[in-house]
Every structure is written in C-alpha cells, then in structure tokens.
Amino acid sequence: MRHLAWGIMLAVGACRSVPKAEYSGDLSGARLPAATVRPAFRLTTTAGDTFDFAGRTRGRLTLLFFGYTHCPDVCPATMQNIAAVTSRLTSEDRRRLDVVFVTTDPDRDQPDSLGAWLARFDAGFVGLTGSIEAVEAAQRAAGIAVAIRAPGSRDYTVSHAAQVLVYSPDDSGHVAYPFGTRQAEWAADLPKLMERWKAR
Amino acid sequence: MTWWCAATGTPWSWTWRAYPGVWAFVLLAGLLAWNWGRLRDAAPRRRRYFAIGMALLWASLDWPLGTLGGYLASAHAGQFLLLAISAPPFLILGLRDALDTRVTAGGGLDRVLRFLAHPAPAFLGYNLILLVTHFPDVVDALMATQAGSFLLDMTWLASGVFLWWPVTAPIRYHRLRPPLQMLYLFVQTIPATLPSAFLVFADYPLFKLYEISPRVHGSLTPMYDHQVAGLMMKIVGDPIVWIGIAVVFFRWAGAERRADLTASGRAT
What we know:
The structure holds two protein chains of two kinds.
Chain A: H1 2-17, E1 22-23, E2 30-37, E3 42-45, E4 50-52, H2 53-56, E5 61-67, H3 74-86, H4 91-95, E6 97-103, H5 111-119, E7 126-129, H6 132-142, E8 148-149, E9 158-159, E10 164-167, E11 172-177, H7 183-196
Parallel strand pairs in A: 5-6, 6-7
Antiparallel strand pairs in A: 1-2, 2-11, 3-4, 3-7, 5-10, 8-9, 10-11
Chain B: H1 20-36, H2 44-61, H3 65-68, H4 73-94, H5 96-101, H6 108-116, H7 119-132, H8 136-142, H9 146-168, H10 178-188, H11 193-201, H12 208-212, H13 222-235, H14 237-267
Helix pairs in contact in B: 1-2, 2-4, 4-9, 4-13, 7-9, 9-10, 10-14, 11-13
C-alpha cells in the first residue's frame, strides 16, 4: 500500500513537471510543449569540486536525472538502462554526452558513496550533491517537482520525479524520457538527439 | 491480498510472501489427483513419482521462485523448466496406473489421450506453447496480472504434458518404439533453441517487464539476466530431456536383455 501511494505521488509529480507532453514521431521520449532553457545551478561533484551545470554542460547533449542511491526501483533501473547504452557508444559520441545525476537525498548520499554507486553503472557519469536547499533549488530550476522525503528514521524513501531531462546542444530541453524508457529506445534516440537540435 | 505470483513492481526483498491461491491450487489439485489416481492403494513408486511431481510444481509456483519470476527473466526460465519440463513426467508416472485402468477405452478422454500420444500433435502442442509464451509482448502482458500469470503457469504445465505424454503414457497409448521415443525427445529440444538464442544474442533486453523491474541484485543487469535465462533453457532444459532419453534407453535395453534371456532359456 505504501508503495502504491508513493507510485501515485511519483506519477503525479511526473505529470506536473511535463505538462501535456506529446510523444513525438521518431523519438521515444515525450516532446515538451515548449522548449525549456538549460537550468542554471551550482552543486558539488563527488570529488568535492563546484559544478556549474549550465556552464559545464553548455553546447552538449546532457541527460539530467534527480534521484538517490537508496532508491529501490526507479533510480537503479534508469541509470542501468542509460549505462547499458552509453557503454556501446563510440568513444567520439560518448565524449559528446554528459549524464548528470543529482541526489535528492544529500543526507545519506555522501560524495564517496554517491560516486561509488554511479561508478557501478558508468565511471563517466557525473554525480552532484549539496545542501538540501541547493538540491531543491536545482529541481525548481529544472522545472520538476521537488522531491519529498517520506517520514521514517533510517530506511526512508524519497519521492522524486522519475523522468530523465534531456538538454540538447542548443542548450534547450525539447524532450523528457519517462521512467520505463527502454535500452533499445535510448540506443535509437541518443544519436538523433546529438544531431537534432544543434548548438547555435 | 496477492493470491498468485505476478509482477508487482514493488521493490524486491527476501521477505517471505504468502500466496494462498498457490497453496489452494496445489492442495486441491493434489487431493483430486490423489483420489482419482487411487494413490493410497498404488505401488509406493507411483506415490513417490506423484510426490516429486507435486513438490516440483509447488516449488515453481510459490515463494521464492514464483515471486522472483516477476523480477528476473532467469527465474521465469527456472519456473518454465520446473513447470513444463520437470514436473509433468513425474505427475504422469504417478498417475499412470489410474490413467491405464480408469480411462474408459473408446471414450472421449481416451480418444484425446490417444491423439496426444502421437508425436506430431505432441510436438506441435509443446512447441507452439513454448514459442508463443516466450514472445515479449505475451510475457509482458500476462506477467503483469495475477490472472495472466496463472494462465501462463497452467499453459506451461499443459505444454509439459504434450512434451512427455508420448513417452510416459500407459503402454496402450504408445505409438512409438523406444528408439523413436528417444529420437522424438531429442527433436523436441531443437525448437527451444530459437527463444534461447534470441535471449542470449539480442542487443538489448527483450522483455520490458524484466528490463525495468526493481533490481534484485545490483550486479545482475537486465541484459545479463536475459542471457542467463536463455542459457538455462538450453544448458539446464536440454539435459533434463536427455535424462528422459537415458531412462527410455536403459529401460529398453533392460527389456531387450530380459527378452534375450527368456529366449535363450526356452532354447535350452
């Protein structure tokens, strides 16, 4: 019952953040009704460096996902599916792509544990953390529902938006990928996303 | 209340889960078959066969394997191996005497059993079910609900009856001599190579259900899980059938030896 409730909340959160999305012809993701701007926020990498998201990813294809390492379902499945595809990209294409994971549970996701968790999928994924206020500000900047921590002392869950936001080389977001996007769909779409909206 | 194992999408844990529908099915089916087969008075080996068959059936349907079947393609393949390949021959052998004596010759059931003992319908029946129930869309749709999962399990059990009936049926139904029975069983292992190969060599996971289901173990990726499932179908499934071939061979060789001894006894 608890999981059902959280599932409904997640679904509501996802719907809130991608209003009236329509599925576009040759892309598996949901086309946004209007292009969004690459969000500006500063957080800390797993190495302890400051990461200016808008500045560091400017002009590059970027997948942005908000989640947490203790997530029992959505986060590992999403990151694993993306990693399964990025590992097969040519080294040239891989260099053109950033995958950024922002923790919504900075209390438990310390830089070292976050880094180790992401390295299980792909050592090239960027992990970001910060104060809870900074992480919430990043979610608001990205235009998604702010994650909510469930009551509980130790093994709490965090309800968070489940979609992967995609920012194209033109520094705009045109499409978002809901939870359940398959590896084959990522494999088909990533090359298109690299070419579709070029840097201006 | 969850009555039958199916994919729930809830995070995996090793906490025991109760499936009253599975217990009721196993209990009811077991009691009905026990009474119909008059196993109380049957030879001990018939009771042993029946008990092994029921135990395999139960193990395939209940926690943990039945539950894992909603999370992992490899566990799903394990269920198939138990339900379709392992349990049916034991269940048929357990009820063999009753199938011989309690089925009225010339009746409707007798005609069906006689038809199924022919290798062609048995081959088609088993492999049609095998191929259809391994289509990704079919698995994704059926495993999402308890009723669908129940239907899939029962279909697999029925496919096992198709597979084994021509070699385990009472003697009056036999259409094949032992050498042909062995050939028949060997040929039955060939079509499974197709879904097995698709699982092993596909570029990306075939079943959406197992691709996005909550992870059971971090290092068991969906792709690896699919490959294990595909390999299990051949590396585990085929040897089970080969054991059946070996049993047929040794029983045939024993019968031939006894016949030779009898013949030589008569000659002297």
